[in-house]
Amino acid sequence: MAPRGRDREVELPSARRLSAATTIDRISHGRFALNLVMGWVPPEMEMFGGEQRQHDERYAFGQAWVDYVMQLWHEPGSFDVDNKFFQGRDIEAYPKPHQGPNPVLLKNLVDFRIMSKS
Questions:
Q1: Domain containing 25: what range?
Q2: What region, left, alpha or beta, does residue 47 occupy, with left being phi > 0 and alpha being psi -120 to 50 degrees?
Q3: Bridge partners of residue 105, in order along the sequence
Q4: pTM for the whole thing?
């Protein structure tokens, strides 16, 4: 089941994909990994119906998304979310992942401009 909020499905484009990922994780007994990329090629973003955010905002969005997904995977009941990128009330997601504490999440939320200065 996709994450749901009070009286309607949460307005989150990746909700169904997240639910599918969790289901695959359970069916495969924990052999699922998710690679998260912030994207930077405008035509690719447009192809998926997204908007091209500025560099720093892409990474802030990515971190907010990861925080939200972790809450969906770990909260035992419903919760509210209200931040710059996501809003919803009484949100919950089932099934929960098979892997503990959660599926492998490959992500790069590091700003390489900062790393290259050292």
A1: 4-115
A2: alpha
A3: 34
A4: 0.72
Phi/psi of residue 89, nearest 5 degrees: -120, 145
| Both tokens assigned to 59 | 């990474």
> How do residues 64-118 score in pLDDT, each as one tens digit?
888 888 888 888 989 998 999 888 889 888 888 888 788 887 776 554 444 444 4
How many domains is the chain partitioned into structurally?
1
- DSSP symbols for 15-59: HHHHHHHHHHHHHTTS--EEEE-----HHHHHHTT-----HHHHH
Q: How far is CA 30 from CA 18, 62, 96, 97, in A?
A: 15, 23, 11, 8
> In Å, what is the CA distance from 72 to each residue of 2, 42, 49, 111?
10, 29, 23, 26
Radius of gyration of the chain (CA): 15
- List 9's β-bridge partners, or say none: 4
Q: Classify 90 in phi/psi space as left (phi over 0), alpha (psi -120 to 50) or beta.
A: left
